Amino acid sequence: MKTKVLYSATEFVLYKLKKFLEQMKKGDLMLARFRKMSENLNRPTELTQSTGSIEFGAKICLVAPHVPATDPPVEDRKGVMLGGRISSNDIKYSQELEDGCSVVGIPHLEPAERSTFVITSADYCDRNGEQLKYNQEFLLALSSSVARQKPLYLRYDPNPIPGLCGQYPLYLSKHPVSNTRWRILPKQQANITRFEQEGQSVQETPNNIWQIYVPIAK
After folding, report:
1. pLDDT tier for residue 117 given thresholds of 50, 70 and 90
2. Of 29, 60, 7, 44, nearest in space to 182 by CA
3. Are 104 and 117 in contact (CB under 8 A)?
4. How far is CA 30 from CA 14, 23, 37, 99, 199, in A?
5. What would the DSSP string read from start to end of 48-87?
6. Which of 27, 104, 110, 125 has its CA 20 to 30 A from that of 216?
7. Which CATH number fits domain 42-211: 3.40.50, 2.80.10, 3.90.930, 1.10.260?
8. Helix (H, G, I), strand (E, B), or coil: what is residue 194?
9. What does the domain layout of the chain look like in residue ranges?
């Protein structure tokens, strides 16, 4: 025989209030999770100071200066910074960037935990302090993940079907596979070819804010 438990209106309100206070204390409320996520992702960071050339172990940010920062575009508002994003579904389980989190363009151009990357070796050797060369492979690991000793690498998986448009296939991955390896090509000049510049040290950009240019289809 089943017994039904009946609550009066007052008892039900007290029960809901008790559950709410318990969730608030544990940080299980969505608002608390969102605040924790924002605190983790937007914590300010310091990039590696300029020394003239790029070295392994340097902390950098990646900025696309020509991309509109607003929708619809505003003439004087351009420039987005690449950074990790936690979806509304993932925030229920973690308030830190994890394996599989997407990478998006952020209109806030101040270096933060979500947008700071460390240049690391792609050949499993400790190259911290060594100068990065043109056309040399390297990995970009999220700075905060390196501090946790669980590195997340910037990964690019292009769409295998040409012509399809969708979200830019950049995300964070814990697997240092071929699609997480990057290279810097020297700028083509009138008096010297890119081939002739291979092996030379990569020159540092002001304040270690790297500019990237993605062609925009017309």
Report:
1. very high
2. 60
3. no
4. 21, 10, 10, 21, 50
5. PPP-SB-BTT-EEEEEEEEEESSSS-BTTBEEEEEEEE--
6. 110
7. 2.80.10
8. helix
9. 10-38, 42-211
Omega before 72 within 30 of 0, i.e. cis? yes
> By the 8 A CB rule, do 182 and 199 touch?
no
Bridge-partner residues for 141, per DSSP? Answer: 118, 153
pTM of the model: 0.77
- What are 118's two structure tokens? 């460390």
Question: How many angstroms from the chain centroid is the CA of residue 59?
Answer: 13
Judge contact between 200 and 159, C-beta under 8 A.
no
Tens digits of per-residue pLDDT, 22-66?
A: 665 665 667 777 788 788 888 999 888 877 788 899 998 998 888
